[in-house]
## 1
Amino acid sequence: MSITHDEIKKIAHLARIKITEEEADATLKKLSGILNLIEDMKKVDTTNIAPMSHAQAVTQRLREDVVTEKNQREKLQKIAPEVSKGLYIVPQVIE
Amino acid sequence: MEDWGIKEISNLLRENKISSLEITTHYLQQIKQKNPEINAFITVDETRTLAQAKLADERIQKGEGDIFTGIPIAQTDIFCAEDWLTSCGSKMLHNFVAPYDATVVKQFNDVGAVNLGKTNMDEFAMGSSNETSYFGAVKNPWDLTRVPGGSSGGSAAAIAARMCPGATATDTGGSIRQPASLCGLTGLKPTYGLVSRYGMIAFASSLDQAGPMAKSSEDCAMMMNVMAGYDVKDSTSIDHKKEDYTKNIDQPIDGLKIGLPKEFFAEGLDHNVAKVIESAIDQYKKLGATIVDVSLPNTNLSIPVYYVLAPAEASSNLSRYDGVRFGYRTNQYDDLMDMYCKTRQEGFGDEVKRRILIGTYVLSAGYYDAYYLKAQQIRHLISEDFKKAFQVCDVIMGPTAPSTAFKANEKIDDPVTMYLQDIFTISTNLAGLPGMSIPAGSVNELPVGLQIIGNYFSEGLMLNVAHQFQKMTDWHKAVPQGLLS
């Protein structure tokens, strides 16, 4: 399985990581090595084997729909890069 | 000051032979003296630490102390601690002062333990050498030219250099056990779900598990008594009956059946490390254990499976770092997309970016079945291997890591070689089983760890098995040259 320079750029965009041409080349080399390692899985016959997503056979718990957290807007926004009047500020997205 | 462990400090505090303020001051001095060279701590806050120690002393004087009250330990920087910088070793969180306590941090605060500071780690716990931290590499106190292991390398180096008697750590593929092995310490990764993940910055949620690291098994047991427990705030926490992990630690272990998987003694294992492990097994025979041959045939597949599942989960977990609500934001950007992409380009280090990209790739359209689903199926096979093995033995033993501590910069440019460091530890994370590393000997004056793998929720037995070995041996008491002052 090989991966191309363009594919690297595509997945970097999907992952919302800016990548330069040089970075893409360096990443290509390293990712190819890792993907070769992963290819070993192909040798295994997994027909009818159930996928395991969790270490324990547990189901998602449900709880009563009640308020458990108090309003801490000021405290939580103190650590934000940019806030104004209780809102998080990002570049304009709608004209 | 003597080279005390947590248990001794606890006894001295309760007998009023020492105060928390005295012992805490001692460790803060050790940190001041040794940390500039070792780089095991990211954040130290003497004022706050000493205030905690004073409160602990008052509590003890009033007779309200717990067995852990007044004991100073370090917290790994993956745990949110209210009003403490919580960086997870990343530039992305270099300015993140946590607004709340992780459950583990709260548990230690509640019993009156003292927080000595936040320890260094590989960025977002991704690494086996503690070289990927934004705050610089950590050095191994046994040999400053070598790595301490990772990702919990700061916690390991801090204990090995006697800057603290114990520390919290986390293990997604070996990040407690491998650094414990490389630094000559005892470390336990509990059964998945036993220790709360609430407030523990997520890497691969189905594999991440926190545990204790200390010099001895007895000390780890005492930490487990604080850390283990059901937490409604963690959706994968398991409602397991609270245990006293120190209770059966002194039980004899004659009749114990130890399974030795032949796959753990195969190619890739340093032959000197193998010899140390074999002689540790001989010690166990003297303690009355019997040896059973077992097989974990899919061991080699654990690395490819892990490097699909862990990056896949990481790519999802780390999508939260967008420069909007907390953490790093790039200085210059044109629009929202540009802000996201530059923030993540600049805020993440190379290894973290690699793993996000792999995760994104294996989850992307057209590849899901071939990679993610396939990996989950093989994860099932790996888990079944252990189930079979535990039908004929009580614990499984083998090496923790394939070699002793390697040189700094030796593997950092070759991710695949670095990943092979975890060949013996990853499978237990995939199965969700508890694993432990204890000092079992040395090669060229570098520590070697023996790995003990137990069945689900058998931490009590594992700590007992480890303690019996430590009663017969002194490896866990060995101190790096020139560091005990």
## 2
Amino acid sequence: MDNINTKEYSPESPSMKSRLSWLWSEYSVIIAFIIIFIAASVMNPRFLDINNQLNILMQVSIIGIIALGMTVVMLSGGIDLSVGSVLALAGVISVLALNASGSILIGVFTALLVGAFAGFLNGLMVAKGRIASFIATLGMMAAARSIALYIAEGGSVSGEVSGFTAIANNNVWIFDLPVLIFFAMAVLIYIVMHKTRFGRYVYALGSNEKAAMLSAIRVDRIKIGVYTLIGTLVGVAAVIETSRLNSISSSSSGAQYELDAIAAVIIGGTRMTGGRGKIIGTIFGILILGILNNMMNLMNVSPHLQGFVKGLIIIIAVVFQKRE
Amino acid sequence: MTSQPFVAMNQIDKSFNGVPVLKNVTLEVEKGEIHALLGENGAGKSTLMNILGGIHQPDSGQVFIEGKQVTMANPHISQAHGISFIHQELNMVNDLKVYENMFLGSEIRNKAGFLNVEEMCRQTREILAELGVFLNPKEYVRNLATSYKQLIEISKALLHKSQLIIMDEPTTSLAEHEVGRLFELMRNLKKSGVSIIYISHKLKEIQAVCDRYTVLRDGQLVKTDSMQAGNLEEITKLMVGKAISQERFVHGHEFGDMALEVERLSSPGLFQDIDFTVRKGQIVGFTGLAGDGRTELFESLFGYRKKYTGIIKVKGKAMKITHPRTALQAGMGYVPKDRKENAIIKDLSVVHNMSLSSMGNFERWGFIQDKRELEKFSSYKKALNIKVANPRITIDKLSGGNQQKVIIAKWLEADTDILIFDNPTQGIDVGAKQEIYQEILELAKLGKAIIILSSEAPEVLRICHVINVMYHGEITARFIGDETNEEEIMHYATGAKREGEHIG
């Protein structure tokens, strides 16, 4: 606290210590990313290979898109556990629409619509029903998965329209299309959060809901908007997930995506209770997770142990950020 | 002196952050007496009691218990000397049962180390019966009415076989017959040699039950005397002081059209049948003691609370206000009390706090123009004398006065015709206070309708054209600003008098 004051009021003479602590508090996730990146390149020369790098980006793009939405939800003071199930549901329904219509556009549109609608329902429950977001989205998590299973009769559904797989498997220059979609979404969400009143209101609401309401902000509408936004992003992720293998499994697709997305947001430095955090932090958070997964694969760590390492990293990240 | 006082506090001095709160205060409480501690908000009563309770340490001065000097380094030492503190706010754990609350931290255990529930229940029942309360000790506290909770709080002090009980406004949520029973019990305790320090604003109660009184004002001892019948007037005068009424700020200027009319506004349990009007350029004050319902009234008017009935007319047009947003659209702004909880968004920067209620002023094609925000802020910074070097720092790093000015700037930017200020100078130093009064006056001169809620009577006396006094959710008196004084206001605020002359 004192350190910060010194920095703000006498910028001409900040002590070395206060400057370091400021750097750390603002950019700890980027510093951690650089350390992990360097460690990875030293430990395994194959890590730096350009194809491996692009592979990491490809692997994080789906969770990354969801994590962007999760950042917004968590900044508003909520959480969304339903993303994995909604992804499966949106995928299943969109494949059915795709096959029935033969139009890729309709397939994509359906996925976005289903995701947005599920998110809208979450938002209604949280804002109007005054149900804790954890509970409301836990309910949606169970319900959406169940409907997906019912529609697909417990199995997978596959696309029958040629060209649909191009969405996830085409390249632009050296980048896979999903990576570019992820980047585009990141830029979009960044602009929404920092350049529009919606973003400003989300921060205000997450920081102090009563003060936000007394500032004449329609808190309920903002909440509904937040959950609808993440639902739509889940729809985008569902299109990529489906298109990648031209099929989606009602039972296993999207399983535990909520955990990875929340982990990325937490590692990225967003405060659990809302009001504070950055989109850029989440992007580096998801990259850290991607590098860790990649390293463990390259070093032949048993897949059964990978969850352990991930868990450890999340806890370490939170311990370091607790120093407010 | 024939007998030693039970507690003697000698020449206590205490300052917080260099601001003296207690100056050379001496207090003696005899064994077996009920001693009233009186004074206005901020007179230093709580600080003095917190020193006795071991919560604060005095800067200088001594505390004696039965003639022996003691150092109250922490609340446990104070308790060990037989002192119990019944705080104004209830310290109950709602999810525990009555007996569990009573024995929290001092549970009775049997030889095997398990809780002796039966014994605890028996003792709980006994003590509550003394207060004339018959409750199942195994009832959950959350199911009880507030008055019962308060009685349990009092019983807890009795349980610990205290020698001295400090009661801070113990009757605020008690019904009349419960108050009667409490007084009965206090008299019994007195007979058995227990001393009581009784803090209250309700002078009638004090007269009924106390033996002696001590009055504090601005951190200084004004008088200690024995309580005699009929000197209530004198005590009120002592509490308020004569020198306190500083020059009035109000200047005569013409009022404009009717800005706000409120008729028969009621909300069950909070306020009833509120009628008042505010004209453009007029400053209308509302004052009263804690629990008078004025904050709830204006939170309802501003659309934060929705369960109310009655008519609200803004500029002659009847409005249904269901959300702060509709209130803003109707032309109302609200600077709430408890700045930290209700007004500032501590994670947002100073500039962003300023622009929060009027984002539309800073947008182009739906995108926020940072530059326009900063420019606007620097004009407010100059106009309101906001002291901040870098407006991009988060608002929680500013002093209370500067935070309040930013919140005022927020509503000026929203440009509403009616401005409601709830405790506008709460926790603000004297200099900034003056500036805020000045600003409010300027706004009134510009033709804004101003409403000021304040727990401090001197504040409304200084700046308001019309003063409403509230008690238990009703307006008990309405005065023209310069035709009343603090004593009179106090009479109506404490419920000692009701239904005064209605003017205007």
